[in-house]
Design goal:
Length: 358
């Protein structure tokens, strides 16, 4: 039996998600009305790390507006190049590193502002069985609690970096020229070298890095490689699925989580990436370490600008905030913009943001 109800009656679901099912009992589900699909379009190029949070927001957006969304996911730097050098029509661009907008798109004239709307941290992931099979020392500090995410995450042992440089240990890597999730490992190695005052640590860690290939659907952690630096919300989701999956928290000086340490991250770590590959872009672009935070912008030549703004209103409002809280990364509400960017935002978005501090 299906009943039509108003949104407030769905107290058990994310507030405002018009496209979600409200489960009242195993035998009874209530669904809200959706407007008919329209010919209006919206194209989003975004980080894959936002998939779980964006899924309900996209459903609610299409249900409420009828606008059909082309949602293109992948590595953030690669997506920036596809929207520019690749000539792909793009309305919204969302990166796993907000500085990609500041450093790549804005200087080349492709975007006017950066909205920082979510944050997180990097953690060190592994499998209990994989560590046991290699007879490695405990990677988790036993005095920091048991592994019971999200309420209890052990801290990394004091010698975690020595364990990662043990002969035969492999650390998962990626292509840093394409993906913030990959180049953040390099930033962490640099920060660890400075923090532990070990002059060759960056080189030693790099020698243990591997870039997995082949079938990505086959679980590789604990088999092809032993450790992986990943976003905490992704690690938390994996732990729910796999009882063998583990992760530990690194010191804030290393895990790229603390806004107050942004200047220190930038001072002590940097990667240099190729530019966008257009005449308007620099040939190479230094990307200093910054705290883990996701940014979004409307492209200056967006073919569906008004639809993009409507989506941002939903993402930065209660619907998006609730979806991020439920799935990660953690929402920043109100979202942050630089003082110089505020006047460039559409008027409807300005009440949803605040100017970031120094």
């Amino acid at each position: 039996m299906t009943l039509r109800i108003s949104l407030p009656a769905c107290a058990s679901v994310i507030a405002g998600l018009l496209g979600a099912l409200c489960l009242l009992s195993p035998a009874l589900a209530q669904t809200p009305s959706c407007v008919p699909p329209s010919s209006q379009k919206l194209t989003i190029y975004r980080a894959g790390s936002l998939s779980a949070a964006f899924k309900p927001v996209l459903a609610a957006f299409t249900c409420q507006t009828g606008i059909q969304v082309n949602d293109v996911t992948g590595a953030s730097v690669d997506k920036a190049r596809q929207c520019t050098a690749g000539g792909q029509a793009c309305d919204l661009y969302a990166s796993a590193d907000y500085s990609n907008i500041d450093l790549f798109l804005k200087p080349a004239g492709y975007a006017d502002y950066t909205i920082v709307f979510a944050e997180g941290r990097m953690v060190l992931a592994y499998t209990a069985s994989g560590v046991a099979q290699k007879n490695l020392p405990p990677i988790a500090d036993p005095s920091s609690g048991t592994f019971n995410p999200p309420t209890s995450i052990p801290k990394a042992s004091a010698d975690w970096y020595k364990i990662l440089t043990t002969p035969g240990v492999a650390i998962a890597g990626g292509v840093p020229f394409l993906d913030p999730g990959a180049y953040r490992s390099f930033l962490i190695f640099q920060l660890a070298q400075q923090y532990y005052k070990s002059p060759m640590l960056y080189d030693d860690l790099m020698q243990h890095m591997v870039i997995p290939g082949g079938d990505r659907s086959v679980p590789a952690l604990g088999k092809l490689y032993d450790f992986q630096f990943t976003y905490e919300h992704n690690a938390r989701a994996m732990a729910r699925k796999d009882p063998d999956f583990r992760y530990v928290d690194l010191p804030d000086e290393i895990n790229l989580s603390d806004p107050a340490r942004n200047a220190a991250y930038a001072k002590n770590s940097v990667v240099v990436l190729p530019g966008l590959g257009t005449p308007r872009s620099a040939q190479s672009i230094p990307v200093p370490g910054t705290r883990v935070a996701w940014g979004i912008t409307v492209l200056k030549d967006a073919p569906n600008r008004e639809n993009a703004i409507k989506f941002l209103e939903m993402l930065l409002g209660p619907v998006g905030t609730s979806a991020l809280k439920a799935n990660g990364p953690d929402p920043i509400s109100p979202a942050l913009v630089k003082a110089a960017d505020l006047s460039k935002l559409p008027l409807s978005l300005r009440p949803l943001v605040k100017v970031a501090g120094n």
